[in-house]
Amino acid sequence: MAAIPVTPQPRPADPSVDHLIQQIVAGPDASATCSADLAAGPWEIDTRPGYGPGASMGDVIPTGAPRQGELPAEYREADDTELDARIRAAKQTLGDRVVILGHFYQREEVVTHADYVGDSFQLANAALEHPDAEAIVFCGVHFMAETADLLSRPEQAVILPNLAAGCSMADMADIDQVEECWEQLEEVYGDMTAVDADGRVPVIPVTYMNSSAAIKGFVGRHGGIVCTSSNARTVLEWAFERGRRVLFFPDQHLGRNTAKAMGVPLDRMPMWNPNRPLGGSDQETLTDARVILWHGFCSVHRRFTVDQIDKARAEHAGVRVIVHPECPMAVVDAADEAGSTDYIRKAIEAADEPTTFAIGTEINLVQRLAAEHPQHTIFCLDPVVCPCSTMYRIHPGYLAWTLEALVAGTVENRITVPADVADPARVALERMLAAKPPAA
Ligand code: SF4
């Protein structure tokens, strides 16, 4: 499950979602993208509250979410060619002093400069391979940079090129709401540390990697564990060995899809809405629950529908539909396969015969896979070009700015997790690394 070290190579087609959006917005039908604002630089929205254009633009951003200060004009005004040259020059000057990590969902113009491309956990691990690098520039979103900070050496600076690159799903589980939820569950279940005859406590908290360090710390303090979309089943098995129930956050869909595949009935998976007493549930339902699902979701993956799958099947005989488990249950059920970004990538790489793939995940990854595998037909299930709003906030202008600052001896946008949060968060991550699938 390692991140992919990047060796520059020619690509047969233009995988740039940005170029696609520019063409759409300049063309006759701008409705082929979800927001014409995507054609502008993200600095146009840095001073405005909200996630900005893209899939999360309708989500409510928490008050106090980090904002990015104004990007200096020289970076806002530089064109793609100039930024590309400046990034390359700064990177060359910095040499081994810096490692650049690019998430699968990041724009092509940024990924092209990454030393590693992967999912959030693969990238945090890739950073571990460079203990001597002074700086780790994480071209992803806030919780990913926090995870890299948790796993890196204290002297290493983890940099997020645009502080406004949060994650609307991670923001849906706020630490105060989670603490409040735990207190209410304590009233239902009693002593949360008391074990039954099988040695199990009432609830084990499980958080998806896509959550803040504060939530990972909460989980670590309460006997819980972190999971990724690749190991969610193994982690739930670990949790069920130790607890009668699981409290799963923030993504209800990953929790539901994974638990359902393990045989947990839907009526034993109540939702916890943090804005309602007892999460909108009742004592009896919570007592009978096996998995309590936090009311969170990814707005990128929530865009995929069963109708899109039906249309793909109608128009492409033999199409292989693969979706991410952050998609709603009906979509996962209607697809041929569901799996993490790494699973999707490997499934395409392993296909020997020319195949048509309809993919339900973020458009930047789908476009890149299509460009890398011209022998296959690969397209995104969603016909509207609507990238992740927060990944979109990392533009080459911010990457050039942070790298040139490093050359000048200044660290901009450092992400640091305080020790009182970092210590228990690391415990939760270490439990995940130690969790193994049961022997077959
Ligand atoms: S794709 Fe979804 S989960 Fe991933 S960063 Fe974007 S909003 Fe968050």
Distance between the termini: 21 Å
Return the CATH architecture of the largest domain: 3-Layer(aba) Sandwich
The total of beta strands comes to 14
The overall average pLDDT, rounded, is: 95
Q: CATH-wise, what's the superfamily of the largest domain?
A: NadA-like
Small molecules held by this entry: iron/sulfur cluster
CATH fold type of the largest domain: Rossmann fold
CATH class categorisation of the largest domain: Alpha Beta
Strands of the widest sheet, in order across it, are 1-3-2-4-5
The amount of helix comes to: 25-40%
Strand content: 5-15%
Instruction: Give the uncertain stretches in residue-range form.
Output: none
Number of helices: 18
Can you summarize the main beta sheet? 5 strands, mixed
How many domains? The number is 3
**Rg, Cα atoms, Å:** 22 Å
Shape: globular
Coarse structural class: alpha/beta
Binding site for [4Fe-4S] cluster: 167, 298, 388
Organism: Microbacterium aquimaris
Pfam families: NadA
Pathway: Cofactor biosynthesis; NAD(+) biosynthesis; quinolinate from iminoaspartate: step 1/1
Would you mind describing this structure in some detail?
Belongs to the quinolinate synthase family. Type 3 subfamily. The protein is α/β, with parallel strands linked by helices and 440 residues long. It folds into three domains: 4-168 and 390-409, NadA-like (Rossmann fold, 3-Layer(aba) Sandwich), CATH 3.40.50; 173-296 and 422-434; 301-380, NadA-like (Rossmann fold, 3-Layer(aba) Sandwich), CATH 3.40.50.10800. 39% of the residues lie in helices and 12% in strands. Strands 1-3-2-4-5 form a five-stranded mixed sheet, with helices on both faces. Strands 7-6-8-10-9 form a five-stranded parallel sheet, with helices on both faces. The protein has a four-stranded parallel sheet with strand order 12-11-13-14, with helices on both faces. Helix 12 links the parallel strand 9 (271-272) and strand 10 (291-294). The structure holds iron/sulfur cluster. Iron/sulfur cluster binds at residues 56, 105, 141, 167-169, 210, 298-300, 362, 388, 390-391.
